[in-house]
Amino acid sequence: MKYRFSQRHTDDTINRLFKEIEDNFPSTDKNGTVKIKGDLHCSSIYIDGDSLYIGGVKITAPTTMDKNANNVYLKYNKDKNKFDYEDTPTDLTTHAADTTTHGTTGAIVGISDAQTLTNKKFGGASHYSEFEADGTLAMTGDATVWDDMRVVPGSFDRPGVTDPTIIAYDVNGGGVSTYLWQFQKNAIASFSIQVPHNYKSGSNIYVHIHWTPGPNGSAENGATVGWKIDYSWANINGNFGTMLTADLSDACDGTNHKHQMTPDVSITGTDKGISSMLICNVKRTDTGTDDTWAGTASGSLPLLLEIDFHYEIDTVGSRQRTAK
Q1: Could you tell me the pLDDT band of residue 44, with boundaries at 50, 70 and 90?
Q2: What's the CATH class of domain 145-313?
Q3: Which residues neighbour 23 within 8 Å (Cβ) at sequence distance 6 or greater?
Q4: pLDDT recorded at residue 237
């Protein structure tokens, strides 16, 4: 960036100098940071004795000048944190035309208040984020992010037979209780969930359960809980298929009141899209070796905290109300 000052600025008033810079040029803040079309505050330019400072950088006496115009020109040298004098000015509007510094396609237009950024990828060749032509932010490769589709036990439907039950849970034995769902063997509950609009179409999702042994961790050290999720997944106007089962059996690690999370189990998302639905059961069963929890009485059972489905995100939302 270049700054132009009258050679005779020492004979002008300080107010005239301020006005010339404010009306015609970029400015710097007190730390020397260049600001394009920013507000210039009095703290950004000041006089100390016989010396002029811009953004904390002292302006030295000029050694060259454009004799025809009777002007000298300043260019800020970021590496040296100083202003250099030159004979000829550079019009700031040339920055807008110099698109090669921003890539081989598209442009950053900086000659008006509106800034246009087109066809630009932030990241690498295969992993990047970009703003598409309609302004949609899209993420590709490793630039995608993850979140949970959450199912809280309060949303469960219970069939009325072998239902999980709500029990007062004295957290850490501190005398203050909350209420959680305990699952005896063969307990079952149902729920449904809609896939969000920021879901990456066709990608797999990963189901897991958050649970705690409550006060029974030490007594059930090494015992497994046969957590399982039955599910069927269908798009809008699609058909629900036969229920499949994700085995989320998990071993108690022997610590009382610990928050445990089962391993993730992948659910294939081929051809699935936004607003598709999963209908599901959560249950605790034993297929022979996957549930060895010994306690059977109320208060000695595993407690379920939440069911989550990890899903991949490649846009902030969908481009249309019912289509990605």
Answers
A1: low
A2: mainly beta
A3: none
A4: 97
Instruction: Tell how strand 145-151 and strand 137-140 pair up.
Output: unpaired
User: What is the dihedral angle through the alpha carbons of 154, 157, 161, 166, rounded to the nearest 10 degrees?
Assistant: 0
What is the length of the chain?
Answer: 324
Q: CA–CA distance from 178 to each of 42, 139, 169, 302 (Å)?
A: 59, 41, 5, 15
Residue linked to tokens 């959560």: 282
Tell which residue, 148, 162, 262, has the closest CA to residue 212.
262
Q: Is 120 exposed, middle or buried (0-12, 13-18, 19+ CB in 10 A)?
A: middle
| CA dist 276 → 199, 223, 318 (Å) | 10, 36, 13
Domain locations in the chain as residue ranges: 2-86, 97-132, 145-313
Q: What is the dihedral of CA 289, 292, 298, 304, to 10 degrees?
A: -70
Token digits of residue 237? 């106007």
Give the pLDDT confidence of 24-43 residue by residue, as tens digits. 555 444 454 444 444 444 34
Alpha helices by DSSP H, the chain: 14-24, 94-97
For 161, what's the count of Cα atoms within 13 Å in the CB-facing half-sphere? 0
Q: Which residue type occupies 294?
A: A
| Residue with the two structure tokens 């501190």 | 174
Indicate whether this model's pTM tops 0.85. Answer: no
Q: Is 13 exposed, middle or buried (0-12, 13-18, 19+ CB in 10 A)?
A: exposed
Of the candidates 64, 44, 61, the one whose C-alpha atom is nearest the C-alpha of residue 9 is: 61
